[in-house]
Structures are given as structure tokens and as C-alpha cells.
């Protein structure tokens, strides 16, 4: 008899962050995860995570909306389906719901986690095998205060936890943002790479002006300087400057990747499993980038351990990952809902080696942090 999906739960989990995290569009004082638990008739449970940044300020899906989509539409479509056929289950979800990529990503992760546990292999093995067992991880300096950011970077360099720092800018006037970035780069010198993420905050003229100054200050990479819809503008900026331009919000799936590649709009793609509707969508996006000679980078939606490790299994299978990753989400959280949190050392994140994701939920913490128990 087929092994079928018997239940799917989506749980909102509110976790405190270690400090406020300031981005162009929101300041995070905490993070909300949507944890998915998917059970099958053979008794195996898979877990997944859908997490976004700042409610609805980053993208079209909010944590509450993700839970609603799963509870109302996606879970009912999965119940009774073959739990061992991930592509089959995802095809059904794509038939009953357009978009909703974050929600679908969490469900795909849960299906893959369960199938890995069923077969007794890590998720990366299920995907064909990891080509690396550790991923370089940068850290985002986003306290909002230049001196505090420098202090934080110095400590993390000394601890050998991170040697690349991404600065979130776009809140202040271009000149003030550049002064902040340049001060940090001057303090760290050649001991660290410094990148910036503008999160679409600039118009094209600001972009040209800001990037010229950032390039002169020795910044290594400029992420999503202008609106995601302005692909032609992004192409003009990419052609104008030597410093590489990375597309993040502009590249969700393989179709965006094709168009950006055609336009020459980005030197680097930020891959995220949530943006692409899951690991397989992320891998298809990466394949387009690869074919177009575009460098790849493993992005994050600041997920907790479950979403971060899901992405890590996918990123570990990529032959090319020239810009490393930013999979530091669990380090921004004071606490999490897994028994063993991911290991970070020597500037890298290591994959757990257990079956599936290699993680187990901590039931006490889940009970403590779930929103519906408050
Ligand atoms: C983004 O836009 O890249 C990644 C790191 C961080 O601090 O925020 C995210 C989202
Ligand atoms: Mg970004």
C-alpha cells in the first residue's frame, strides 16, 4: 500500500533576535518562522520552514498569510497523496495554487526531510550528493550604528566566525550610507570583504552615484541597488561599473534568471529556496545562472535552523558557488526550536550528517515560542 500524507501543520513561531536588525524597509526586533510538520502513514514526520523578513515589507507572502495558504488550500491538497513522490506532490500544489512560493518551499522541504529519513540518507544525498561539506558564511552588520558594527566585525573576525560582512543600506541619504560603509571598510581593510545590500531602495541616479562612491571605497559587491522591476536599469548599472552587481529580489525563479541573463543585468544571482518555491526551483535557477556564466551566491530570508539547513543541503550540491553564502540566520536568533543548532566555525557552516535535514524539533521550545500558545 502506498505511503500517504496524513497531516500537515503550519505553526507560527516568534523568536527574539540577538539585536535589532535594520534593513532599508524594516527593522526587525524579532523573527517569525512558519514551521511545517508533515506526517505520513508510515509514521515518519518531515519538517520544513517558511520565513520572510518584516511581515509584508520584503515580499508578497507574510507569515500569517503563509499559514493561511497552507491550512486552507495546500494541506488539504496534499492529504492522501503519495508521501514518497516529492515531484508528484509539488505538481499537485502547483495545480491548486499559483505563486505562494515560500509556503510551497516549506512543504517541499518537509516532504524531502521525510523521504530522506525514510531512506536513511541526508537530504543532500537525496539530491544527488554534496560537492562540499561546509559552506562559507558571511555576517550582516545591521545594528544601525557604525562604531557598533565595527566592534561586531572585529569580534567575529577574531573568533574566526566570519571574514566577509554585508552592510544593509538604503535607509539614509546616499552620501550618509556611503560614509558609514566606507568607515567600516577603512577599519577592516584587507582583513575582510565588505559587500552592501540596498534592498531596492535607490532610484537609478542614486544607484549610479552611490555605486561610484562604493567602488572607490573598495566595496566588493553591490546587491539589488534598485527596484526589482527595473531590470533594464540594473543592466545599465552592471555595464557601467566594474564592481559586481548582484540580483536578489529581481531573481525569484528560472524565468527571471533567463531574462536577467539575456539583459546582462547581473554579475551574480542570490539564490534562495523560499524565493524559488523550494530546493528544486532554486537548483533550476542556479542552472540558468551557470549556463549564462553568472556567479552564484547562497542567500537567506533569515530563516531559523530548519530553513537554513534545508538551503544548505541544496547549496552543497551546487558545482559553482563563487560568492559563498549568507546562511547565518540561526546566529541572529537568541533561541531556536531544534534540539541541536547548526555548527559554525572557521568561517563556515557544516552540514549535519543525519538522515533528511539531520535536525529534530525541540518540543519544549516549540511549545514555548509558538504564537498560538502565548
Ligand atoms: C536580503 O535581502 O538579502 C539577507 C541577509 C540579511 O541581513 O537580510 C537578508 C535579506
Ligand atoms: Mg538581499
From TrEMBL:
Keywords: Aromatic hydrocarbons catabolism, Isomerase, Manganese, Metal-binding. Pathway: Aromatic compound metabolism. It holds the Pfam family MR_MLE_N. PROSITE patterns: MR_MLE_1 (PS00908). The active site is at 168 (proton acceptor), 326 (proton donor). It comes from the Bacteria. Its cofactor is Mn(2+). Residues 147-244 form the Mandelate racemase/muconate lactonizing enzyme C-terminal domain. One of its GO terms (biological process) is amino acid catabolic process. GO terms for molecular function: chloromuconate cycloisomerase activity; manganese ion binding; muconate cycloisomerase activity; racemase and epimerase activity. Belongs to the mandelate racemase/muconate lactonizing enzyme family. PANTHER family: O-SUCCINYLBENZOATE SYNTHASE (PTHR48073:SF2), O-SUCCINYLBENZOATE SYNTHASE-RELATED (PTHR48073). This is Muconate cycloisomerase. It comes from Cupriavidus cauae.
Amino acid at each position: 500500500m502506498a505511503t500517504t500524507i496524513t497531516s500537515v501543520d503550519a505553526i507560527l513561531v516568534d523568536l527574539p533576535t540577538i539585536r535589532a536588525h535594520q534593513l532599508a524597509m524594516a527593522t526587525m526586533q524579532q523573527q517569525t518562522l512558519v514551521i511545517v510538520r508533515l506526517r505520513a502513514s508510515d509514521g515518519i514526520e518531515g519538517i520544513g520552514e517558511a520565513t520572510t523578513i518584516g511581515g509584508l515589507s520584503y515580499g508578497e507572502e507574510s507569515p500569517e498569510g503563509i499559514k493561511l495558504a497552507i491550512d486552507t488550500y495546500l494541506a488539504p491538497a496534499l492529504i492522501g497523496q503519495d508521501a514518497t513522490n516529492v515531484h508528484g506532490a509539488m505538481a499537485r500544489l502547483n495545480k491548486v495554487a499559483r505563486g505562494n512560493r515560500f509556503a510551497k518551499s516549506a512543504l517541499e522541504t518537509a516532504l524531502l526531510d521525510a523521504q530522506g529519513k525514510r531512506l536513511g540518507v541526508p537530504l543532500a544525498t537525496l539530491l544527488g550528493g554534496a560537492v562540499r561539506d561546509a559552506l562559507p558564511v558571511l555576517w550582516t552588520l545591521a545594528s544601525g550604528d557604525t562604531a557598533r558594527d565595527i566592534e561586531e566585525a572585529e569580534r567575529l573576525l577574531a573568533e574566526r566566525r566570519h571574514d566577509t560582512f554585508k552592510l544593509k543600506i538604503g535607509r539614509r541619504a546616499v552620501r550618509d550610507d556611503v560614509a558609514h560603509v566606507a568607515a567600516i571598510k577603512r577599519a577592516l581593510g584587507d582583513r575582510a570583504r565588505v559587500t552592501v545590500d540596498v534592498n531596492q531602495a535607490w532610484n537609478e541616479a542614486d544607484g549610479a552615484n552611490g555605486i561610484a562612491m562604493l567602488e572607490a571605497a573598495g566595496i566588493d559587491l553591490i546587491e539589488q541597488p534598485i527596484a526589482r522591476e527595473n531590470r533594464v536599469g540594473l543592466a545599465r548599472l552592471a555595464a557601467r561599473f566594474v564592481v559586481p552587481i548582484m540580483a536578489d529580489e529581481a531573481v525569484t525563479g528560472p524565468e527571471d534568471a533567463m531574462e536577467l541573463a539575456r539583459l546582462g543585468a547581473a554579475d551574480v544571482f542570490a539564490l534562495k529556496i523560499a524565493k524559488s518555491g523550494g530546493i528544486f526551483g532554486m537548483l533550476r535557477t542556479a542552472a540558468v545562472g551557470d549556463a549564462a556564466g553568472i556567479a552564484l551566491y547562497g542567500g537567506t530570508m533569515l530563516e531559523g535552523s530548519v530553513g537554513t539547513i534545508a538551503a544548505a543541503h541544496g547549496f552543497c550540491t551546487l558545482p559553482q558557488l563563487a560568492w559563498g553564502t549568507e546562511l547565518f540566520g540561526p546566529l541572529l536568533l537568541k533561541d531556536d526550536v531544534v534540539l541541536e543548532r547548526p555548527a559554525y566555525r572557521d568561517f563556515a557552516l557544516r552540514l549535519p550528517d543525519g538522515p533528511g535535514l539531520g535536525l529534530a524539533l525541540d518540543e519544549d521550545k516549540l511549545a514555548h515560542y509558538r504564537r498560538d500558545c502565548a
